[in-house]
Design goal:
The chain has helices at about 35-45, 60-70, 70-75, 100-110, 130-145, 155-165, 185-195, 215-220, 225-235, 250-255, 265-270, and strands at about 5, 10-15, 15-20, 50-55, 75-80, 85, 90-95, 115-120, 145-155, 170-175, 195-200. The protein is an alpha/beta fold. The chain has a single domain (about 5-210, about 240-250), classed as Alpha-Beta Barrel (TIM Barrel). The strands form 3 sheets. It has a 7-stranded parallel sheet with strand order 3-4-5-8-9-10-11.
C-alpha cells in the first residue's frame, strides 16, 4: 500500500480508518455491541491499517476509549480532534475556546492512554472565537509536548494560510469525495505544501449515483462503486489519506480491497 509521511516523519499507509461509527446512533453513546466495535478495530490493524482518525466528540469519548481498548494507540498513528461540543439531541456545536482545547487534550490523552497525541486536529472553526486564538492553543500544546503534530478540519484555503503562519500544519481534513469536489482548491494547497489531505465522507455518505461512468468502471474491475470511489481518491492525489468508517468487519474488509485496485488513465479521466 502507498504511504505518506505526516508532518514529514510519521509514515502511514494512505488508506486509513475512520472511527466515528464505533459509537451509538447519531454518534452518541455506546454501540449496541462493544465487542464487535473492538473487533472491527483489531481487524483493521491486522489488515495493515496504521492511521486511524477519531475525535473527542464521537460519543463523546466513546470512540477514543474503544480504540484504546482495542490496542490501536500502540500499533497505529491515532489522530483525534477537539473543537466541537455535543448534546443529547446529537447536535454538533463549534467550541474553539483556547482554555477548552487545553482541557480536552488532557481528556483525550487519558482516554487513548498516551502521553503524546500523534495528530491533534482543530475540528471546526468557531464563529464565536477568533480563529487565530484557537490555532495558537494547538501550537502551544505542540510546544509543550502534549501533541506531536497539528491538523485542521473544515477550513478554507485562507484559514489554512493563516494557520500556517502560526504553526506547522501536518494535515487538513475536509469533506471531499468523487461526487463532491467543492474543496478542490484546499486539496491543491495541501499538495503544494505537502500537507496530508484527509477526505471525510470519502464514500459520499453512500450516494454515488450521480458519478458518471462509475458503474461501468466498477463492473470492469469486478468491484463495488465504493471500492472504485476509494481507489479514485488514492490515485487522484498523492497526499490524500482516505478514512472510510464502518461498524462492520465485512465492510471494512471490502473497503481495504480498494487499495489493490489500479485504475487506468482512461478510467481516471472518465471519472474526473
Amino acid at each position: 500500500m502507498d504511504t505518506f509521511d505526516i508532518g514529514g516523519e510519521l509514515t502511514v499507509n494512505r488508506l486509513g480508518f475512520g472511527a466515528m461509527r464505533l459509537c451509538g446512533d447519531d454518534i452518541i453513546g455506546t454501540p449496541d455491541d462493544e465487542a464487535t466495535a473492538r473487533a472491527v478495530v483489531e481487524r483493521a490493524l491486522e489488515l495493515g491499517v496504521d492511521f486511524i482518525d477519531t475525535a473527542d466528540s464521537y460519543g463523546p469519548g466513546v470512540s477514543e476509549r474503544i480504540l484504546r481498548e482495542a490496542g490501536a494507540p500502540e500499533e497505529a498513528v491515532v489522530a483525534t480532534k477537539a473543537g466541537l461540543l455535543r448534546n443529547a439531541e446529537g447536535d454538533w456545536l463549534p467550541h474553539g475556546d483556547p482554555d477548552y482545547i487545553r482541557n480536552q487534550v488532557l481528556v483525550s490523552r487519558d482516554r487513548l492512554g498516551v502521553d503524546t497525541i500523534d495528530l491533534y486536529q482543530f475540528h471546526r472553526p468557531d464563529p464565536d472565537t477568533d480563529f487565530e486564538d484557537s490555532v495558537h492553543a494547538f501550537a502551544e500544546l505542540k510546544d509543550e509536548g502534549f501533541i506531536e503534530h497539528v491538523g485542521l478540519s473544515n477550513v478554507s484555503v485562507d484559514q489554512l494560510e493563516t494557520a500556517r503562519e502560526i504553526v506547522e500544519v501536518a494535515t487538513v481534513q475536509n469533506q471531499y469525495n468523487i461526487a463532491d469536489r467543492s474543496d478542490e482548491d484546499v486539496l491543491k494547497a495541501c499538495e503544494a505544501y505537502d500537507i496530508g489531505f484527509i477526505p471525510w465522507f470519502p464514500l459520499g455518505a453512500g450516494d454515488l449515483s450521480d458519478v458518471e461512468g462509475i458503474d461501468a468502471v466498477a463492473e470492469a474491475h469486478d468491484a463495488s462503486v465504493y471500492q472504485i470511489a476509494l481507489a479514485w481518491l488514492l490515485q487522484h492525489s498523492d497526499v490524500t489519506l482516505p478514512i472510510p468508517g464502518t461498524s462492520s468487519v465485512a465492510h471494512l474488509e471490502a473497503n481495504m480491497r480498494a487499495a489493490d485496485l489500479e485504475l487506468s488513465d482512461e478510467e481516471l479521466a472518465r471519472l474526473t
